[in-house]
Hints:
Elements: H1 2-11, E1 18-20, H2 21-24, E2 25-29, E3 43-46, H3 48-53, E4 58-59, E5 64-66, H4 68-71, E6 75-77, E7 82-85, E8 87-88, E9 97-100, E10 106-108, E11 112-117, H5 121-127, H6 131-140, E12 147-148, H7 151-154, E13 158-160, H8 164-202, H9 215-220, E14 223-226, H10 227-230, E15 231-235, E16 244-245, E17 249-252, H11 254-259, E18 264-265, E19 270-272, E20 282-283, E21 288-291, E22 293-294, E23 303-306, E24 312-314, E25 318-323, H12 327-333, H13 337-343, E26 348-349, E27 353-354, H14 357-362, E28 364-367, H15 370-388, H16 393-412
Parallel strand pairs: 3-10, 4-9, 17-24, 18-23
Antiparallel strand pairs: 1-13, 2-11, 3-5, 6-10, 7-9, 7-11, 8-12, 14-28, 15-25, 16-19, 17-19, 20-24, 21-23, 21-25, 22-27, 26-27
Helix pairs in contact: 1-8, 8-15, 8-16
Amino acid sequence: MSRIDALIAKLCPEGVEFRPIGDFGELVRGNGMPKSDFVEAGVGCIHYGQIYTFYGIWATETKSFVPPEKAARLAKVDPGDLIITNTSENIDDVCKGVAWLGDTQIVTGGHATVLKHDQDAKYLSYYLQTPQFFADKKRHATGTKVIDVSAKSLAKIKIPVPPLEIQKEIVVILDNFTKLEAELEAELEARRRQYQHYRDALLTFDERTDKQASKQASKQATRIMALGELGNFIRGRRFTKNDVVKGGIPSIHYGEIYTHYGVAASSAISHVRADMAKQLRFAQPRDVVIAAVGETVEDVGKAVAWLGNEDVAVHDDCFVFRHSMNPKFVSYYFQTEAFHAQKNKYVARAKVKRLSGESLAKIMIPVPSLEEQERVVSILDKFDALVNDLSSGLPAEIKARRQQYEHYRDRLLTFQEAA
Length: 419
């Protein structure tokens, strides 16, 4: 920071010039390029949707390619250009940018704008993340279901443009923060793979059949039983977004099982109207709530063990599994490769993927003693906290680094405007 302060005092002591984006660059709107145009090899391309989901501040390689004849009709992106999204379903993602730092020219398509400029590309991309830019783009955004900031509006937004020497110094500092966070993310991913391997190993048991009569074999082996033999499946009852209230009956919607809940939950994040009580169905403490619907085969069958002190209303696209096993043992098993291999045979593969209660009842699960179930859960809880708990372990460190990065990013990219 002291070096940057010294550079500002030396190069722009009266403040930094704020300039409209259109004043220092040319904005070229993209067109076309559906994902159906993608090929295995060809001209590198960046689709606007990938800027939200795949790319960071900058890129030197592309994830996708289009044929040369398609590329000829698309917006060209030269090394050093910035690609900015114009459209999104939410205000956060619109105007997200990625600096192209590869060696060759690539292309982009509709819902994106190419900024050709004479500034530091990474500096501009970092600035597009700041709260100040967020406030500015929000004033220019139009639409409700789909949010859009046109290239014409984007050109009007003013941003601080310090001398290039200062821009580059800021980029060096922010790159170091980004690199550290990426290293932690890579370590966390390695830990997650290790956890998944260990979880599947812990939840794999030798099968014991009635023909195995020896006591020694019985001690080392475990019964494998169908879920339908161990309990029953109760389908939830429908409620809609209009039924959700701030206070009322605790509820679990199937979509929340994908996006919010982990292996177990002791409190619900949403509630429905109290006057609906008689028409709802509930999970009791120690039941397992299972999502029966999803956009992908992987999502269907995700489970959460309900460990709250009261009953919780369950959506009709979920099943309640009522049983006498350790609920977290069941929930952990629903994450394993063995479970998914069985489940995938039963999922109805329409546009919306579905799993019936009859199919769930056929899935086989190991049933060790309750003491062994408790032991396995205790071990997996420690692993789960290490890779998923935001209050401890690597996730907590990544969260802290992210907050530190955002603090310094916003501080470094806040300037006194020249009179």
